[in-house]
């Protein structure tokens, strides 16, 4: 593992911690006294600080430290959580997130905001806490250059040699805390010349022997050029756990008595303290002739100890981190597998064998297996939208601050899982839509109060799975779209003919025209150069669509509909004129083989079909795609009933339906070029390429043949947008 | 024989850093994500030394020390506390609860290794 990959993991972990922080703060609002929540929030910031310190990210460390110190006061109940403090925590969390991002991307961050947040945070710390001593040295990790551990070797020719006499008598607790006198002596021996003398006089008779007692004491003499403080450092951990007396004697004079070199003493000592320091029986007792019944008992107890707790309370589920490339390669291969399976099916069919029941069954089983594998693989890429949704609470906060409005975000269905790429590419459009919802959708608090609404506006962000698609809704409870103004604006901007008569959905869809802005003046929020057209393009690039619905006085809802996966889908294999094509099953409500008397011609060439008493417009797919000329009589064909966001029910006429199967989506844009009405292509069982149709776009193409109220030069944009 | 380390820290980053430092210095490295997991895997790992963070979910570092020092399977394996706080108060609390030593984050590679050597007798 290289330092870079550890660094990457750190930033990944930061993202998770920041998410946990946001979530914790939201919980804290609900339950300001919940100790667990306070602790969790504290830990998020604390862990970021800890990791940042390891990489020498001082700015991040400093801010996290101040932030954490204020939180610590909440933990200690010195500070009560109120709305103001929660607000400050939220903003500090945002700043932390910015600092993490700037550290990760190695960009400079404008610090005016940081300074004022520092001040605000410090105002909670009181006069004493402000200048709290806090030094955090960047660590020196020589990972790519593993140098030997620096040990201060005694210099033989040092002019200032000292001689220290040390009296060391450990207490029982020294052993209990896991210390070994030998190792301490080893550390001393590294400093210079050490001699030691063990005092065995405390050893009691065998009957009175308690193996957990501390019995031995030592007299040590160290000749070294190191100062006394270095000696104390060696004993740092055992201070208070022993009698320790260090006195400086004369250098070079060996003490009278029985000077012993370290090694022999060490052996003797090992024998002597072998039992003394291992009273709980964890050390091997076979070499100890005087192992007491006590220690044997505890060994038995250990052997018969209950097994490790079953893993029911194990906190987070175990996860595995996998390189995304590997998953994508697997997905690709599975795609090929599905094509291969389709080909095998087709070949067998072509052989025209007599019906062999078990072959068919096995082939069917193969198909199901391939499908299970595919779904399993796609599930690896699926992630809950929660982190994405959580980020939006910050956008709402910032947008409401910037516009002086009061707004809160409510999220629904944030455990809904969506493809990772979709989540990533949805972040920008969603951000823009949320900003819009606050900026343009919600009214000012006063205006809301005047009409009897809650002064705090609500942005509702929800996600759900419906009929093989992912639905994401952004709803505000604002004033609703001002259609008159939208139309006026569109006319003023020359986007629509002055005498155009547009239906309400058509007016709403004007918002998606490039460069459209409804704000009376360009506010600092909307002046970011991103329009709803960009949102629409981004969603379409993901194979999705976006639509609007709005009720005056009640609010506006944007709905984004996305495919569950970007790789495979269920489709009908159909014939259109003489071409084989695929249409997504998800979009088809039902198929109809109409009776001639149910099809009616309206005007010159518009057709409708009567379905259970209501009339549904017919769009001929071949005509829409320009495969056939418009004819008077189009024959019967088969009608696919499709429901679309903007146009209600429509019947698509195709020549015939062959099969229903799973197809692997191959992007047309990356392999060829975008074609209107066609969303992608696939490879069929016979190895031929078939186009995958986009019903929504086809219907628009079909309707464009009707009287069009829009000016010709804008047709393309409007249809597309 | 290699010296086995069990590192208990809820930060993946710190666990990674410890792994790199300690495996580089010849230790056998094991880790746990919080105190609860740490004391659960302790008998299986059977480490020669434990390194533990203080502030962790489910069970904190003091909980780890208490469990290892006074539970039914009590042990006197060295326990090193890895903490961002360097206050004397914390040190004396750690010492009185049974910690063998402490290292202040951000830890310095060389001093961590030398402390571990001093506590375990490990030869790298």
Q: How would you describe what is shown here?
A:
The complex is a heterodimer of chains A (721) and B (124). Chain A is α+β, with helices and mostly antiparallel strands and 721 residues long. Chain A starts with a helix and ends with a helix. In chain A, the strands form five sheets. A six-stranded mixed beta sheet of chain A has the order 14-18-19-17-16-15. In chain A, 33% of the residues are buried. In chain A, a hairpin with a 5-residue loop joins strand 21 and strand 22 (689-693). Chain B has 124 residues and is an alpha/beta fold. Chain B has a single domain, classed as Rossmann fold. The longest helix of chain B has 13 residues, at 12-24. The chains are: A alpha+beta (721), B alpha/beta (124). Chains A and B meet through helix 1, helix 2 and helix 8 of A and helix 1, helix 2 and helix 5 of B.
């Amino acid at each position: 593992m290289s330092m870079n990959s550890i660094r990457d993991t750190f930033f990944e972990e930061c993202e998770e911690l920041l998410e946990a922080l946001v979530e914790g703060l939201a919980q804290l609002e609900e339950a300001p006294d919940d100790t667990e929540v306070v602790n969790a929030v504290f830990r998020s910031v604390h862990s970021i600080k800890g990791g940042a310190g390891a990489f020498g990210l001082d700015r991040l460390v400093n801010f996290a430290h101040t932030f954490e110190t204020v939180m610590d006061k909440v933990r200690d109940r010195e500070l009560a959580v109120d709305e103001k403090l929660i607000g400050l925590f939220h903003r500090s969390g945002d700043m932390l997130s910015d600092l993490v991002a700037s550290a990760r991307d190695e960009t400079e961050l404008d610090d005016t905001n940081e300074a004022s947040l520092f001040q605000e945070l410090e105002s909670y710390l009181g006069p004493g806490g402000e200048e709290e001593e806090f030094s955090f040295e960047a660590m020196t990790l020589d990972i790519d250059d593993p140098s030997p551990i620096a040990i201060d070797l005694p210099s033989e020719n040092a002019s200032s040699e000292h001689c220290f006499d040390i009296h060391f008598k450990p207490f029982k607790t020294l052993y209990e805390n896991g210390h070994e006198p030998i190792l301490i002596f080893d550390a001393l021996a590294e400093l210079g010349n050490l001699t030691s003398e063990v005092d065995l006089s405390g050893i009691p008779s065998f009957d009175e022997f308690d193996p957990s007692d501390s019995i031995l004491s030592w007299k040590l003499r160290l000749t070294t050029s190191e100062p006394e403080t270095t000696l104390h450092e060696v004993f740092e951990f055992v201070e208070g756990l022993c009698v320790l007396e260090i006195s400086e004697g004369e250098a070079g004079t060996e003490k009278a008595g029985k000077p012993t070199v370290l090694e022999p003493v060490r052996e003797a000592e090992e024998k002597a303290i072998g039992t003394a320091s291992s009273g709980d029986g964890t050390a091997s007792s076979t070499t100890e002739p005087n192992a007491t019944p006590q220690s044997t008992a505890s060994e038995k107890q250990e052997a018969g100890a209950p097994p490790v707790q079953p893993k029911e309370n194990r906190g987070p589920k175990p996860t595995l981190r996998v390189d995304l490339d590997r998953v994508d390669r697997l997905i690709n291969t599975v795609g090929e597998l599905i094509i291969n399976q389709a080909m095998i099916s087709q070949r067998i069919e072509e052989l025209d064998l007599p019906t062999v029941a078990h072959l068919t069954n096995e082939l069917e089983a193969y198909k199901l297996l391939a499908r299970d594998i595919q779904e399993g693989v796609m599930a690896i890429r699926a992630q809950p939208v929660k982190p994405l949704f959580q980020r939006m609470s910050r956008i709402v906060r910032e947008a409401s601050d910037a516009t002086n409005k009061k707004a809160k975000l409510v999220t629904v269905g944030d455990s809904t899982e969506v493809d990772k790429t979709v989540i990533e590419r949805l972040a920008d459009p969603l951000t823009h839509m949320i900003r819009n919802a606050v900026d343009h959708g919600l009214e000012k608090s006063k205006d809301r109060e005047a009409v009897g609404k809650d002064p705090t506006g609500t942005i509702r962000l929800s996600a759900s799975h419906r009929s093989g698609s992912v639905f994401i809704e952004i709803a505000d409870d604002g004033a609703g779209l001002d259609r008159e103004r939208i139309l006026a604006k569109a006319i003023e901007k020359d986007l629509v003919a002055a005498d155009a008569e547009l239906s309400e959905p058509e007016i709403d869809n004007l918002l998606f025209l490039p460069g459209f802005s409804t704000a009376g003046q360009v506010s600092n929020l909307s002046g970011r150069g991103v329009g709803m057209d960009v949102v629409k393009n981004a969603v379409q690039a993901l194979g999705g669509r976006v639509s609007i619905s709005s009720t005056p006085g009640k609010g506006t809802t944007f709905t984004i509909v996305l495919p569950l996966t970007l790789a495979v889908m269920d489709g009908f294999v159909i014939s259109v004129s003489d071409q084989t094509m695929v249409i997504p099953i998800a979009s088809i409500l039902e198929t109809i083989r109409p009776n001639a008397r149910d099809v009616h011609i309206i005007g010159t060439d518009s057709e409708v079909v009567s379905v259970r008493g209501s009339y549904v417009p017919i769009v001929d797919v071949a005509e829409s795609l320009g495969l056939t000329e418009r004819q008077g009589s189009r024959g019967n064909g088969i009608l696919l009933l499709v429901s679309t966001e903007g146009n209600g029910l429509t019947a698509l006429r195709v020549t015939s339906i062959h099969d229903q199967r799973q197809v692997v989506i191959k992007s047309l844009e990356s392999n060829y070029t975008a074609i209107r009405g066609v969303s992608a292509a696939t490879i069929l069982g016979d190895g031929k390429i078939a186009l995958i149709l986009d019903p929504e776009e086809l219907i628009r193409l079909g309707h464009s043949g009707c009287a069009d109220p829009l000016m010709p030069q804008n047709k393309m944009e409007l249809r597309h947008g | 024989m290699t010296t086995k380390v069990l590192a208990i820290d809820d930060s993946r980053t710190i666990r990674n850093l410890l792994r790199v430092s300690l495996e580089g210095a010849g230790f056998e490295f094991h880790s746990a994500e919080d105190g609860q997991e740490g004391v659960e895997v302790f008998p299986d790992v059977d480490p020669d030394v434990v390194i533990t963070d203080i502030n962790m979910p489910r069970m904190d570092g003091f909980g780890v020390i208490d469990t290892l020092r006074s539970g039914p399977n009590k042990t006197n394996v060295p326990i090193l506390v890895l903490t961002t706080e360097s206050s004397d108060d914390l040190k004396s609390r750690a010492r009185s609860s049974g910690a063998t030593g402490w290292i202040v984050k951000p830890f310095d590679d060389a001093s961590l290794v030398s402390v571990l050597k001093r506590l375990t007798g490990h030869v790298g």
